[in-house]
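During the reporting period the student researcher (J.K.) took over the structure-prediction task from the postdoctoral fellow and processed the backlog of single-chain submissions. One of the processed entries is reproduced below for the supervisory committee.
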Amino acid sequence: MVNLLLTSAGFENPKIGDEFIRLIGKPPSDIRVLFIPTAAINEEQLKFVEESKFELLKVGIMEDNIHTFNLDRVVTYDKVAKYDSIYVCGGNTLHLLNKIKDIKFDIILKKLIDDGKLYVGVSAGSIILGPKVRDQPGLKIIDTCIIPHYSDDFREKLEVLKKQNEYSITPLTDMQALLIRDKNYQIIE
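J.K. obtained the following structure tokens:
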């Protein structure tokens, strides 16, 4: 069963954190998370990585159960299959996508998702799953392009993007997440 929780700003909305716990179906203290901060390449982005980690702790994940993996080396499926969730932080989307492809983590990631592991994306971590990232192919795990950090100020730009794009577009505010379970899409707000 495919389980994706695609967010704009992590668990800023507490309902998204609650949904994370519900989807895994274990006591929070038993949940093991593979935490990927690779997209964060500047100080501001690194600050949001710390906020993401704090949000995991806040929902009850034990610090020892959060394993940081920076996509800096090849890893085997067996090394990461023990985690209940893959949490991919925001930052520079193309940097993240290129690092994933460089070490062929996309193959492992797709297998983890196919095996029912909960994938949580934050901003760039959500965008990369789509069919397209700017002018490059995305990972094509979902058939919609995620537009994070959406507000009404971007309404006109979004309409232009929809007309120019061959794929569907899903805008998410910082208080929303797109939950995908198998073929079912649901907005959490």
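The committee noted the following: Residues 45 and 83 are 24 Å apart (CA to CA).
J.K. will present the remaining backlog at the next meeting.
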